[in-house]
Every structure is written in structure tokens, then in C-alpha cells.
Amino acid sequence: MEVLTQDQKAAYDRDGYLVLERRLTTDQLSILHAEIDRYTAKARGLTEGTEELDLEDSHTPDAPRLRRIKLPHRHSDVFRDLMFSDTILAPARDLIGPDLRLHTTKLNMKEAGYGAAVEWHQDFAFYPHTNDAVLAVGVILDDMGPENGPLMVFPGSHKGPINDHHAGGYFVGAMDLERDGFDMADAVPLMGPAGSISLHHGRIVHGSALNTSTRSRRILFYEMMAADAWPIMGSMTKFSDLADYDARMLCGTSRQPRLADTPVRIPLPAPPIGKTIYEIQKGLQTRSFATARD
């Protein structure tokens, strides 16, 4: 174990999540916030999203509103350097082993008063693998409380089935919570001061409500898996060839696939609209959260 205690690892195995408070310094947070400001300035004047930026439905060129910075590690040295740091990788190694491969990165922006909700889902429904040594590390960039749309999880749901994320004959990237036997009163918010880190299992049921507060709620996700977890055909994991896939190694070495008795569903037929979860989830017929306001 590099940074976690055995009790923390046992809690993650039991519940499917952890929150580690105050892992980033004030100086680190200032650098990250400045980098976000740089991207927000890029959004001014845009009439539609770009390969880097996903815009809120209420965005206008004169009043830019970012919903997500897509794949920030590809175009920001700041976010890429943090991704390779022990701040991110050490707790992940403690939980799923020394050989880690990147799945994706994203910075979800929930600005005060309108930040979009994310409906209940399981990451593993989007990218099933040969085993479930899959997790997401979340860097909490603003103080996160119950009123500004924190990530919420159902403890222990990572040990259950992969629920149906389809509606109208298509994959919509979200569940019908009542149909699948969940009560929102049982959900636990993952909260903490800015600079904290959350970790959640790829199979845990999670979502987040609209930010109705006067404070931003921005969280940077690094999603990764053990190098012996390989994508199953039909997964949303995309790569051109083995060299491309091995270039995603974060630490350690590439490994042969390990097969485990893990439940999977395939995210097909593909959603008819959208590349981000916000667009894909518009196909959902029964919503748990209010949609973003004007």
C-alpha cells in the first residue's frame, strides 16, 4: 500500500467508493482554476461545441457556459501532468494494482445556478471489460456540498448487476431508478473541500443533480482500469490498434487479458444523438433529476 490504509481499501471493496480529503495544495488548485479560466475564455464567441469544449444548452456566444472540457489531458499540460502524478495514481494502484491504463478524462463543469445534472448510470455500462478492476478518480476543484450538485452513489451497488441503460430501442446511458429497485433516499453524496479526491468503482450506480447553488461545482475525472482489463467488443472504448492502446498506459506494463465472472451489458444499438453523456441521456424517457434551467 502506497497511500491508503487497509481499512480504506476494505471500505472501498465493501462500498465501492472513497473520499480522500485535501490531497491538493492551495497552489495546485490555483493553477488548475487558472487553466479552467483559459478554457472558459475560449468558449466566448462560440455558437456550438468543439472537439475540446462541450457547451451548456443555455450557452450563448456573449455569455459562455461550459458543461465539459473533453479529454483535457490531450491539450493541457497542467491536466496531463496531474494525471501522471502519484496524487492520482498512487491510490488507484493501492486499489486495483500496479499496472494501469487510461480510459478517458473529462472535466465536468457545474457552474452556479444552472450546471447540468447527470442521470443515474454505471460507467461499466458504457465500457464493459473482461474484469471489473475499473475505477474513476475525481479531483474536487471547488468546495462540494449537498446544494451544488455533488456526485452521489448507491453504496454496494458495484456488487450488483449492470442495469439496463436502454430506452426506445437505443442505449441512452442512464437507468430507470425506480424500475431497477433503487430509492434516492439511500444515495450517499461524495462531498469534501476543494482539493479532495474521490474514487468510485466502475460498476457503482451514481449520478448528480442540477447545481442550484450560488457556487460552482467542478470535478476533473481520470477514468482508468487495471492493464489486464480489456474492452469487450461493442464497448465505447475506442482505439485504432495495439500501439495506440498501449500508449494509454499510465504506469506499469501492458498485460494479457484476465477474464472474471463479471456481469456485462453491451451499449448497442448506439445512441442516435450525441457523443457526451449529456447528449446521450436526452434519449431517457424517465428522469430522476430536473434539467438545466435557462
What distinguishing features does this structure have?
single chain; 294 residues; eight-stranded antiparallel β-sheet; four-stranded antiparallel β-sheet; 21% strand; Ectoine hydroxylase-related dioxygenase, phytanoyl-CoA dioxygenase (PhyH) family; oxidoreductase; 2-oxoglutarate-dependent dioxygenase activity; Phytyl_CoA_dOase-like
Would you mind describing this structure in some detail?
The protein is an alpha+beta fold and 294 residues long. The chain has a single domain (6-283), classed as Sandwich (Jelly Rolls), CATH 2.60.120. Helix content is 20%, strand content 21%. It is built from seven helices and 14 strands. The longest helix is centred in the first third of the chain and has 18 residues, at 26-43. The radius of gyration is 18 Å and the shape is globular. The mean pLDDT is 94. Pfam families: PhyH. One of its GO terms (molecular function) is 2-oxoglutarate-dependent dioxygenase activity. Keywords: Dioxygenase, Oxidoreductase. InterPro entries: Phytyl_CoA_dOase-like.
